[in-house]
Task: structure prediction
Amino acid sequence: MIKLFNIDIFNMKQKTYIFLFALVFLMPNTSCVRAEEGENLRKYFSKEEVSELKGLTAFFDSIVQQKTLIKNKPLAYKQFLKKLSDSKSHTEAIENYKFRFNNNQKIKNRVSSELFNKIWSIEKGYDVKNKDSVTTLNINRKNQYMKLLNSKSETMVHKYYEEIMNSGGISPSLTAILQHSYADLDFKDYDNRLIVAIHYITLSNNL
Result:
């Protein structure tokens, strides 16, 4: 009887070890689970707007990958910004990479009016050279996109946010911050790719 009792105990322990091993093996490794792309956007935009932003970023991702011939998105963005930083002006940079948009690609034709107003504003100005009034696309400093920028912890993005607030929107100094500090950005972070996309989409829509 004692022998049988010992055998039963042994079998129970063996089964317990097998169960624990299976449990540990099958549990997901939470340290390897990455947040879904664009998850942070849900704090500032609706579900539908997040979907639109993902489409917008995917559109710009394809431009960056096409112009750099690099499939890896983080590497492609760094190469893209490096080439732009070597250009003498915004216009030259955009012309060199040939991503001026046609009318169907203008940003107002690509996103809903609700999302547009949360990121951009239409401003009126005066073209001294042509002596005519003009309308330009700029960053809306009083809405959700600026809240997203202000939430980011990276030093470069914080400088970018402050420059928009101080200069009133897209400016040469803002572009300089982006082009000279891009190496500090992690482009595996979806938000950082979105920031670059919105910056250059805004510039190109004004050409």
User: Anything to note?
Assistant: The chain has one domain: 44-205. The beta strands are 120-127, 132-139. The mean pLDDT is 78. The radius of gyration is 25 Å.
